[in-house]
Design a protein that fits this description.
Keywords: DNA-binding, Nucleus, Transcription, Transcription regulation. GO terms for molecular function: DNA-binding transcription factor activity; transcription cis-regulatory region binding. InterPro entries: WRKY_dom, WRKY_dom_sf, WRKY_plant. It is found in: Nucleus. This is WRKY domain-containing protein. This protein is an alpha+beta fold and 296 residues long. The chain has one domain. 36% of the residues lie in helices and 12% in strands. It is built from seven helices and five strands; from the N terminus they run ααβββαββαααα. It has a five-stranded antiparallel beta sheet with strand order 1-5-4-3-2. A hairpin with a 4-residue loop joins strand 4 and strand 5. The N and C termini lie far apart (44 Å). It binds a DNA duplex (14 and 14 nucleotides) through strand 2.
Length: 296
Amino acid sequence: MENQNQLPNGKNAMEEELIRGRDMANQILEVLAHDKDEGSTNSKSVLPFVEDLVRKVLCSFTNTLLLLNSNNDVSYEVVASIAPKHVSSSTSSPKLESSDETCKSLMNTKTRRRGYKRKSIAPAWEKDSSILIEDGYVWRKYGQKMTLNAKYLRSYYRCSHKNDQGCQAMKQVQRIQDNPPLYRTTYYGHHTCRSPLNPEIILEPISPSASSTLLSFNNSFQRQQESPFPSSLLASTKQEPVEVIQDYHSAQNQLSSPEDLLLYDYDFFFDYSKRVASLSSTETVEFENVYEQFGF
DNA sequence: CTTATTTGACCCAA
DNA sequence: TTGGGTCAAATAAG
């Protein structure tokens, strides 16, 4: 609660508002879920659409909160790289790093594991909540732990798009008391993923003035400097945007080599301006359809 | 089948 | 050495 660094003027108020907004969106989600359980008789429902919208709203709130709460310093350096060349293990990389000779002999099952990575980034922000908050993103649990001074388990989550898009976002959820239940959610890193559900959600901060039209290279790199999220991936891929996988649907399954991931990230960024331009119209159309269904 | 979670072992920063 | 973060095999869920 108050243990966070004090934000400069106005930011606290902004944060309050965002949290309120997000909480309300969560409530809508709950209502929707409840409604779904009631086994509604009407066949064609707008629920999926509304639910999707709410999730998008949640993503926006979450992203904004992350941006607001991240100290705009160097704390976002991407990991440590104890073993820089090992991106991940096993199935995820089609070509095993053939240059690496050490792992080869370790094919033996129970020997030591490769490419162990440990987070070294500072938490973006943390928040206590009486409920398990839905933040609009899809998370995958990868561990849980009983910690020393806590009565409850701490759960570790990473973004579901870590493997297919290289998204580095993580969070921890720990119950810190019962009755009333209280959970502390701590976010690490930021989302670089583009979910099929939320193609327009991207955390890379976009200045309002630049949002309507093409982003120039200058803008991008300038923004990168003042951004709390200096994407090292971006920085390392200043080459050609290339025509990398335009539609992520087809790209979901083909797993990518590290280089592809970099291009991916770059592509997201690049693609964004176009999306902003076209987004409003398509959304409007969808809205109209919905209203028609309901005879509005 | 594929994909997500559980769980104990493993790893490493302090 | 220890505690907390992560891996990955086993298991569960869809």
